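Practice problem: predict the structure.
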Amino acid sequence: PVVAARAGEEGTRIVGTLEAMCSKKEMEDRMAWRQLDIFEMAKGCTIEQPVINPKLAAKKYQRSSADKSYFAEDTRDLASCAQTVLYLLRTILNADIRESPALSDLCANVDYPKVWSFLRDRTRAVRVDLHVQQPWSTNTGVYTVVHEVCLRFEILSMFLWTTHETYLAKYDEKMTLKACSQVMEPLLNAYVQAREKIAHGEEAFVSPAEPYIRRYTILLLLVGGEVNKVFEHLTTLPADLLKHPAIAWATKVATTIAVQDYSRFLRLYKDADFLSAAILSSLLNLVRQRLLWVMVRSNVPMRRDKLPLEDLCRRLAFVDHEAAEEFLTFHGLEVIEFGTGKKVQLPARNKDQTWDVMYDSAAQTAFNERLGQRAMPVKCEFPRRLEGILRDQHAALPFDRVDIVFGACDAWDSNARAGHTSPAQQAAACPDLADLGALKAASAAAPNAALGGDFGAVAGVGGLQTPPRESGRPAAPPPILPQRDEPGPKKKQDLALQEQQLRSLLLKKKKLQEGRKLREPAPEAPPEPGQAGPAEEGVVDKQRTPSVPKPARVPPSILAPAIVATMPSTDSSQVSPPLAAVLFGEKTPTTAPKGIFGAIAPPQAA
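Answer:
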C-alpha cells in the first residue's frame, strides 16, 4: 500500500504490512549466515549450533545504500513497531541484573555493554521502519514516542556505562553523542511539524514530554561543546516553551558555561533531575579543574593558604572525600592531615609568576601541567568515574530502567509520596506480551507516562493497514504564573538595616537645617533719617558678621534619590511605603504592598 503524496513532500510514502517483529525470510537468512544474537536464541542451543526463537527475533538494522529498495511486506506497521519496542525494553533492558525466563541460558552472565549493543541495533531498525513510511508517519504518536524512548535510553546508558570500571574502558562518549544526535534531529522535526499542523487546524500528535526532551537537547548540545548552537536553538523555540521551568533551567545551565560561572553550574547540577544530571556528569571534571585554576590565582602572592578538605568538597560538588582527595592530588595539590582534619595546601605564586609546590617534584610537575598554565584548561585528563551525587540520586528513584526510558523521571519529584509502586512492577503482572492495554493502564501511574495517548492506542490495535487517525489536539496545559519568592531572614535583615541607615541620614539632614537657622542673624531695624549707619561713618562693626545667603530648599523628590544613591546596595523598590512617603512627599496608599515599595513611583522633579 502507498499513500498519495502531497506537493513538496519527500519519502517513500509506503504503509508497512509486516505484523511481526521479524520476517520469516530474514530469520532464515540470518540462521544460514550465523548472524544470531544470544538474546534471540532458543533454550538448550549453543554458540556452535545456534537455533533461533521466532518469538524473540527482532529485525536487524541494515545500512541503507543507493540501490537499496524498501517494500511494504518487509516494513513493520505501527503496531508492530510499538510491540517491538515494548518487548525489547521489558525483556532485554534488565538482562544484566535480572534473569528473564524467556531468554536462553546463554544470557545468564551477560553484561550491560552487550545489552546496550543489542538494544541500540534493534531500536535503530525500528526507527528505520518508521522513517521509510514518512511523511504520513511523522506526526503519529508511535513515531514521536519511539524516538523519545530511544533518546532516554541513550541518556540512561551514559550513566550505566560509568557503573563499572570495565565498562568505562569500552565506553566511547563521542559515539554516544552521535547516536543522540541521530535521534534528536528527526524528533525535533516532528515537534515542529506537529505545531504547524495544529496551527492550521490539522490533526497531529503533540507530545506532553516535549519540554523535557527539549531540555535534554539543550544539555546535549552543551556537552558536545557547541555553546553557540545552544543559543541558536533557543531562538527557534516558541514563547510557551521558553517559559517552561524545564527549559528555563537548561538555559541557566548553558548561560553559566557561556559566562564561566562554574560555581553556579555546580549548584544547578545538584538540583538537576536524574537524566539531566547524567548528561552533565561528563562536564563535571572540567568544571572542577577550571574552578581550581581560578582559586589558586585568587590567593595573596608568596603565601600558601590551607583550605579544609570538607569545604573544597562542598565547593567542587564531591560527595566522597576519597574521590575529592584523589582529584586534588592528581592536579598537584597537597592534602595534609592536621589535628582538626585534613586540609589542602595551595601553592605559592612567586613574583615571576611561577608556582612553588614545596619539595615534591612530582606534585610540582602535575600542577604546572594542569593548573599552572596561563590559559584556562580546555580538557581534563582525570579518569572519569561514577559520580557520587548521580549514584545517590539513582538509588533514591522508585523506578527501574523501563520506567525511566518511558519518561517516569522527566518531571519526577523526589519528595513524592512514599510507597509508590513503579509502572514496571505493575506491568509485571501482565504475562502476555500482546496484552498491551494492561501495560498502558499500569504505566498511567507514572508521572508524564509516555505510553499514554496515541502510542498505547496504536499498540493495542493489531494489523493496521492505513495511516492511523489521531484523536485530536490535546488540552492546553494550564498557564504558568510568575511567583515572587518570599525574602529570607538575611534579606529582611538587610532591608531593615538599609531603612535604618536612610532614616539616620534624614535625621542628620534635619539637624543640619535647624543649626543653620540658629546661626542666622536677626533682621536689623532701618536707620532713622539723618542718622548715618556704621558703613557711612567708615567704622566696621566687629560684632556684626556678614549674612550668609540662605541656600535654596531642595525638594524632597530630588534629595531622596540622591541620598539613596549614596547608600551601598540600596534599591528604592525595597523601601517600605511609610518611609517612601517621607522621602518623596506622597501619601501612603491604603492598599500598599507589604514590606516592598514597588507600586509607587517617585514624582518627576520640576
